[in-house]
Amino acid sequence: MVMSSSLWTDNFHDFYVDREQERCIQCLVCVRQCPYEANVYREAAGVVDSVHKNCTGCHRCESLCPTRCITIRTNPSEFRPHANWQPREIKNIYKQARTGGVLLTSTGCELPYPNYFDRILIDACQVTNPSIDPLREPMELRTYIGRKPEKLEFERTETGEVRLKTEIAPQLKCEVPILFSAMSYGAVNLNFCEALAMTAKEVGTYWNTGEGGLHRKLYPYGDHTIVQCASGRFGVSKTYLGTSAAIEIKIGQGAKPGIGGHLPGEKVNRDISETRMIPVGSDAISPAPHHDIYSIEDLRQLIFALKEATDYEKPVFVKIAAVHNSAAIASGIARAGADAIVIDGFRGGTGATPLMIRDNVGIPIELAIAAVDDLLRAQGIRNEVSLIAAGGIRNSADVVKIIALGADAVYIGTAAKIAVGCTVCQRCYTGKCPWGITTNDPRLAKRLNVEIAAEQLTNLIHGWAHEIKEMMGLMGINAIESLRGNRERLRGVGLTDRELNILGIKHAGE
Amino acid sequence: MRIEIDAKGVYYRDLNRKIRQAVREGYTEIYLKNVNGQYYIADGIDREVTIIIDGVPGNDLGAFMDGPTVIVRNNAQDNVGNTMNSGKIVVHGRAGDVCGYGMRGGKIFIKGDVGYRVGIHMKGYKDKIPVMVIGGKAGDFFGEYMAGGVLILLGLSEDGDDRPIAGDYLGTGMHGGVIYLRGEPDMNRVGREVGIVPLEETDRNIIERSVKEFCEEFGFDYEEIMKGQFTKLVPVTNRPYGNLYAY
């Protein structure tokens, strides 16, 4: 790859550091805070200056400037308007002409594809059926993730007691239907992992290790930890599997369906190297497929290899990206013996993904969950798996809508990062996260205080939980189980018949 | 303490439950007779027991295992030693595809040939180095994505066997670890992430130690095998895709 020396594109930067010089006291906080060197001190002139081209729009300097003299703006300079050749396209071509590389990005799809969450409205009780006030009446959010029996059988013991005869598969007990999705140690740092783990324990839910293994420091949170087994098999050992509450086989991810992952060598420090068992500075490469899985039968083989290794005590999840045939694939996964299926929509986040793949591959989670739930019901096997929806869940209303469309619970990732400071600047792949989340640089990572982050995450879950209860209450529903797949309580606005048909909902006014 | 378990017609789940039970009860040698394709034998067992298998075990033999010694007096099938952590697997015959996938430690000795994608994504950290020695030849994608550990391919075969020692895409995507071939690879079949470097003293020690153990297991003539020339293959970089991206 040849790096062309021409830098004529440097002035076409995305952001602009607007600094009111008269208010600047040259405290240099902004200079020290910016890992991208967008703020610099010109010693000779005695002023703080900006290198606009380095600004990623993270707003870290703006948030910490004591005199509030900084405002980060999108660069006011504009190309000649053109509907087809938007600035984004032009700048990407410049980048590739210079480097010959694959465009890399982070987080979830940023393009304005139709968002079905925003075209679905929730029903409420009026007059003919009473609503429920969650402040004064019991409201059940507890959700069990795992395979449910087709029927329950009871038997009478010799002493005359009635006993459950049916053997119940292992279940995860979630006090809220919200779990933290897989974010690997390496992609995010140990502070963030620990904050997620502490929160999961505090609120009675689960966090997910992602594919980077489990740092020894977090073993005490094992009861609230879902461990991942991905194609790179990083950190997968008997101890790792045994420490967990559940095991997740990662087949795909919404932000990069069908491709593997490369954790860049810059992020592989000593601790990460030890947890992943690869040398320091080496790329951590996850192959696109698991090379022992080329079919549903092979998937079954890995599911049961994991169940055998853990004595059938832990639920095994299978995570796939939402793609065109998700429903048929999910049916296969259910039949392969998985206890839960995770479906990650195309808006799902990531630490690093090729831009073209993030923005052009996969389908929305709303449609995928509806289609999967429909098919599993039609085949009479919906009870055999739990469905966890992931990929772009932004608020409690999204949670309510996706559960009503057929999910049992949701995974949140980006929302959790935002709760601790992330501004979605989409530069996680640089390893220089100014908020100390997706960085392993100790000077940056210490910006994330574990206890404070855990408190913020706990607050978020409590806030959402309360809102979910309010929304259930106004629908007259007092248990989340009664909301699951309850599509009658949803209505579409501005959707075509076909879209409504796939979502299995009526149009508003019907 | 030794226990004998007859696997004839026993469903894999029942067989493995019996094995786990025997391990829990403190048996140190478990002899399995009439094994016929049962999956997951020794899967996840984390004690230093010896499991001797008469018959052909099924897929995922020794998956995730951490400590046992498993001796197969016959051929083995796919996924031998899948993500195993420590211990030893000895196969007195051939093994199938994807042997030693993501192997993190311990040793695997295969007397004969192996199938496709063997030793892929093996790991290694400090002194925890997995070692696999294969007496015969290997299929395509041998050592693919290898991130650590040692693969030794001896290429012993009967007269008239003119197959190459390893198939296509040898070591493709390799970014750690080392492969020793007894003989020379056809460079047209070698992944472009792989280079040949001269053997050093430490390499000879590893080869000698491992081949000696291999010969002790299977009764081969050590001196005869060591007459062959060994080639050392290593990744040309630990960041094969470091320049792939535009920022």
Description:
The complex is a heterodimer of chains A (510) and B (247). With 510 residues, chain A is an alpha/beta fold. In chain A, 29% of the residues lie in helices and 17% in strands. Chain A has 16 helices and 23 strands. In chain A, the strands form eight sheets. An eight-stranded parallel β-sheet of chain A has the order 11-21-20-18-17-14-13-12. Chain A is globular and about 90 Å long. The N and C termini of chain A lie far apart (59 Å). Residues 1-5 of chain A have low confidence and may be disordered. Chain B is of the alpha/beta class and 247 residues long. Chain B folds into two domains: 1-71; 94-240, Glutamate synthase, alpha subunit, C-terminal domain (Pectate Lyase C-like), CATH 2.160.20. Chain B has three helices and twelve strands; from the N terminus they run βαβββββββββααββ. In chain B, β1 (2-6), α1 and β2 (29-36) form a beta-alpha-beta unit. The mean pLDDT of chain B is 95. At the A-B interface, α3, β5, α5, α6 and α7 of A face α1 and β12 of B. β5 of chain A pairs parallel with β12 (245-246) of chain B.
Search tags:
heterodimer; A: 510 residues; alpha/beta; Alpha-Beta Plaits; TIM Barrel; 2 domains; three-stranded mixed β-sheet; 29% helix; B: 247 residues; Pectate Lyase C-like; eleven-stranded mixed β-sheet; 27% strand
Beta-strand fraction estimate of chain B: 25-35%
What is the assigned CATH homologous superfamily of the largest domain in chain B? Glutamate synthase, alpha subunit, C-terminal domain
**Rg of chain A, nearest Å:** 24 Å
Structural class of chain A: alpha/beta
CATH-defined fold name of the largest domain in chain B? Pectate Lyase C-like
Low-confidence stretches of chain B: none
Largest sheet of chain A: 8 strands, parallel
Report the average pLDDT across residues of chain B: 95
The oligomeric state of the chains shown is heterodimer
**Proportion of residues in helical segments of chain B:** 10-25%
Order of helices and strands of chain B: EHEEEEEEEEEHHEE
Give the tally of structural domains of chain B: 2
The profile of the biggest β sheet of chain B is: 11 strands, mixed
Shape descriptor of chain A reads globular
**Could you estimate the helical fraction of the residues of chain A in percent?**
25-40%
What is the second-level CATH architecture of the largest domain in chain B? 3 Solenoid
How would you write the strand order of the largest sheet of chain B?
A: 1-2-3-4-5-6-7-8-9-11-10
CATH class of the largest domain in chain A: Alpha Beta
- N- and C-termini, Cα separation of chain A: 59 Å
Terminal-residue CA separation of chain B: 62 Å
Q: What is the CATH domain class of the largest domain in chain B? A: Mainly Beta
